[in-house]
Amino acid sequence: MSATEPTDPGTHGGDPRANAILAALPPAELARLRALGEVQELDVRASVYEPGGAITDVYFPLDAVFSMVAVLQDESSVEVGTIGFEGMVGLPAFLGSTSSPHAAYCQVPGRALRVGLPELRDVLTDDGALHDQLHQYVSATMVQLAQNVACNTGHQVEQRICRWLLTTHDRVRRPDFPLTQEFLAQMLGARRPTVSELAGRLQQRGLISYSRGQMTILDRAGLEACTCECYWTIRRTFPGIADAATDPHDASSPA
Amino acid sequence: MSATEPTDPGTHGGDPRANAILAALPPAELARLRALGEVQELDVRASVYEPGGAITDVYFPLDAVFSMVAVLQDESSVEVGTIGFEGMVGLPAFLGSTSSPHAAYCQVPGRALRVGLPELRDVLTDDGALHDQLHQYVSATMVQLAQNVACNTGHQVEQRICRWLLTTHDRVRRPDFPLTQEFLAQMLGARRPTVSELAGRLQQRGLISYSRGQMTILDRAGLEACTCECYWTIRRTFPGIADAATDPHDASSPA
DNA sequence: CGCGGGACGTCCGGTGGCTGACACACCGTC
DNA sequence: GACGGTGTGTCAGCCACCGGACGTCCCGCG
């Protein structure tokens, strides 16, 4: 847990209702979780849980974005799933597992509501809206994982780069966010030079712009034209994302 | 639903306790499910649900084996998950979804206990052992899906062939089962000639033997030596499989 | 102002697996 | 005994991506 110190929940952007699952709860249930949890600011690569390690807390992202990552024996790594304001980090804990062979860490820095496992269970025993919301989210996550299997097996790296950028853009709801080619290559399970060449082409075409670890989405529609159907298949399963309009300040917000 | 007519539950091999989830239920809960459901014999490629289609029943495999499959726009297909006696086909239904963008069909013919969705919900409202069992199984399935993402992204087809054979062997608990190269290629998201060449090598090395759609596992330990760690990572998460000894008639049963 | 390191660009050889096509071997059927 | 369907073996050509290695630019820092 390399999270920085907790932030005052009253701070701008710290409203738990920024998270789609929390926003769907009745006021009383939301109030309980807000009281039992703590809004935290997380840095890039801040670990939520390690492979095989105990899962002691779950996180409801507000504007942060997280990755579920599998690390293979040759120390290469691949992102297996993305988690933003539409979901929750730590599903195994909800499902009764105390650990997972995979890792979860922060991909784009921001805020998340951290809730301890005992506190989560307290609220869950009410057997109210949270349980239903999480069941729905688990279902959508399984679709995401399954589609990632197919996409990573059959589609080209360029399409997957576009999909990754769109997926992240949907969750940060800002046209620019920190991202290095090295990090992106790890997420895709590809080599950095491969990413460098393909990303360079996307930039030449005016779809994106980046420099020294800062990525900017210039032409969403263009990226959508370059990605595969997997993007839409996954997006459709997350109502929280499909419904949410991107920040109006973003000139290239999704349709 | 291209299943054949129901089989008398009393038939040899039709005992619901062959399924690990059902076997873990208290006698009363098991009896209810057995009474509400129906043991069916399923043929190869018998569909359980289609992409986007309604999920009206769930299946608890007894000796049949099923695949979750994603079909891409170019009509290629990839297996995203395997379901045998350790699990249940139709998780989206349990989680509250009435459909899935993926398909599920029978991979190795055999028996399964079919239970209608209303009947399943009836038993689930008891909020007893079945709910817990399914939560645990969902958690393991997510690990399987996630590891499949990583494996299909990073590992070679030969390793994945070995993993597929071992995974299926664990579930049929017989050294031989029907399998064509064409089918295996579809599961792996690879071309048939690729599978032909690699499988030929495995046969030359004496690890397997096959002819005209019939596969026989000759040397489990040899296959285990050729596969990747993903096999074990997934296997560990399914206690029902790790515990179950393979049929003693099988000379090359797992350790 | 010089230095070091992080982020990015690029090159070449190698290769696994794809594209597409063709040939054979076995099986049941007529 | 001829025949078509199914399952399998094999080939040449090709391309995306890997593996490893350099070079360059820019920033922060001493």
TrEMBL record, chains A, B:
<feature type="domain" description="HTH crp-type">
    <location>
        <begin position="155"/>
        <end position="221"/>
    </location>
</feature>
<keyword id="KW-0805">Transcription regulation</keyword>
<dbReference type="InterPro" id="IPR014710">
    <property type="entry name" value="RmlC-like_jellyroll"/>
</dbReference>
<dbReference type="InterPro" id="IPR018490">
    <property type="entry name" value="cNMP-bd_dom_sf"/>
</dbReference>
<dbReference type="InterPro" id="IPR036390">
    <property type="entry name" value="WH_DNA-bd_sf"/>
</dbReference>
<protein>
    <submittedName>
        <fullName>Crp/Fnr family transcriptional regulator</fullName>
    </submittedName>
</protein>
<dbReference type="InterPro" id="IPR050397">
    <property type="entry name" value="Env_Response_Regulators"/>
</dbReference>
<dbReference type="InterPro" id="IPR012318">
    <property type="entry name" value="HTH_CRP"/>
</dbReference>
<dbReference type="InterPro" id="IPR000595">
    <property type="entry name" value="cNMP-bd_dom"/>
</dbReference>
<keyword id="KW-0238">DNA-binding</keyword>
<keyword id="KW-0804">Transcription</keyword>
<dbReference type="InterPro" id="IPR036388">
    <property type="entry name" value="WH-like_DNA-bd_sf"/>
</dbReference>
<dbReference type="Pfam" id="PF13545">
    <property type="entry name" value="HTH_Crp_2"/>
</dbReference>
